[in-house]
Write a structure and sequence with these properties.
- The protein is an alpha/beta fold and about 375 residues long.
- The chain is built from 17 helices and 11 strands.
Length: about 375
């Protein structure tokens, strides 16, 4: 049943995930083993780019899941394999068709938090649900490790002063000739990449810090906010052959984990495009109209619009005037991450969300007499 590949997969019933992989012609990427074949799996573990474990490797674990690594759950198998191969391991993923039963209720969009608490790099459903496909995520993670490992020599030969620059160009695929390249490198450095770290640490940094927040990479709503366009107008302009789509293509992120949870763009590249937008309203409208043509121009009424997050501090594809919002964060935000913006009306109605609002913005939640 073993298919040689760079993704080590341990499951008592691997057929479902493997069938999905084969349907995408990716079955040869998986090296599948049963949970009771750990000695055989351990021989291949050191060369794998990714470890994947089914959470419930035996049926009784569904009723009494083991969270300490002592049982025969996927987490227990992970710890056994980790001990057998030392800490020099690749990123690891826990998958399950019963993820909530295994872990409890959690926000699926903030899986990086649950993964870190469990000591792995990622958690996922075993089968596709909506727009989320575990096969795409798993293969993207394995590809990221392969890319980082191929650049490991270059990363290891530079000191801390140049690490962010080499990382940005070699691993994150920052365009060398971009006029905003230096600004992008500075922003990468500001997100404190783990200097001289291995592939696992760099992937974890991307999953836990860079991708969940507006960082040196940003999602489409931030483009709309900075350019003064509605999200719908931006989406229409990106789907058509426009001057704006051409400009933004040069700032499109193409490095490791590109498209992992939707497309992203280099923040410095977007700022460079936004900088060229005229400030006076008449010239601004004419400039934006030319950029989005033939799409219909839909401008934001003012320049101070922000990307709105929900009560769990997950960004929505929605903008709102900054005067209607307050800043919020929780203990899971890395120090360098900017706060989320949440609607004042939502925070007033949700006590849990209200407690996440920054101290300096709490006055906005006070009901005026």
């Amino acid at each position: 049943m073993t298919t040689q590949g760079d993704i080590l997969y341990i499951d008592d019933d691997p057929d479902g995930l493997l069938a999905s992989a084969k349907s995408k012609r990716l079955g040869n990427r998986f090296d599948a083993h049963l949970p009771d074949a750990l000695p055989q799996a351990a021989k291949a573990a050191g060369k794998a780019n990714l470890w994947v474990f089914d959470y419930f490797t035996v049926e009784q674990e569904r009723d009494n899941p083991s969270l300490d690594g002592s049982g025969r759950s996927g987490l227990g198998v992970f710890h056994q394999l980790r001990r057998a191969t030392s800490e020099a391991r690749p990123p690891s993923v826990l998958v399950s068709s019963h993820l909530e039963e295994a872990i409890g209720t959690f926000d699926y969009q903030r899986r990086h938090i649950v993964a870190e608490q469990l000591g792995v790099e990622w958690v996922s459903r075993k089968l596709a649900s909506g727009s989320s496909d575990p096969i795409d995520e798993i293969v993207a993670l394995a590809d990221a490790v392969a890319a980082i490992r191929s650049s490991q020599r270059s990363l290891g030969q530079v000191g801390s002063a140049r690490f962010s620059s080499v990382l940005a160009h070699k691993v994150l695929s920052l365009p060398m000739d971009a006029g905003w390249s230096d600004a992008a490198v500075s922003e990468v450095d500001g997100w404190r990449p783990p200097v001289s770290a291995g592939a696992r640490e760099l992937v974890a940094w991307m999953l836990r810090q860079v991708l969940p927040h507006p960082s040196f990479l940003v999602r489409a709503p931030h483009l709309a906010s900075r350019l003064g366009l509605t999200v719908a107008c931006l989406d229409s302009a990106l789907r058509k052959k426009t001057e704006l789509s051409s400009l933004l293509s040069s700032a499109s992120y193409q490095g490791v984990l590109a498209g992992f949870s939707g497309p992203r763009w280099w923040s410095a590249g977007v700022d460079a495009i936004a900088f060229d937008v005229p400030r006076d309203s008449v010239s601004r409208t004419a400039h934006l109209k030319r950029l989005v043509a033939p799409a219909a121009l839909q401008e934001l009424p003012s320049s101070d619009w922000v990307v709105v997050s929900d009560a769990d501090l997950v960004e929505a594809d929605e903008l709102a005037p900054v005067t209607e919002c307050v800043r919020a964060s929780d203990e899971y935000f890395p120090p360098q991450a900017p706060p989320s913006w949440v609607r004042i009306a939502d925070a007033k109605q949700n006590k849990v969300l209200a407690r996440k609002v920054r101290l300096e913005d709490q006055a906005e939640l006070v009901v005026q007499p």
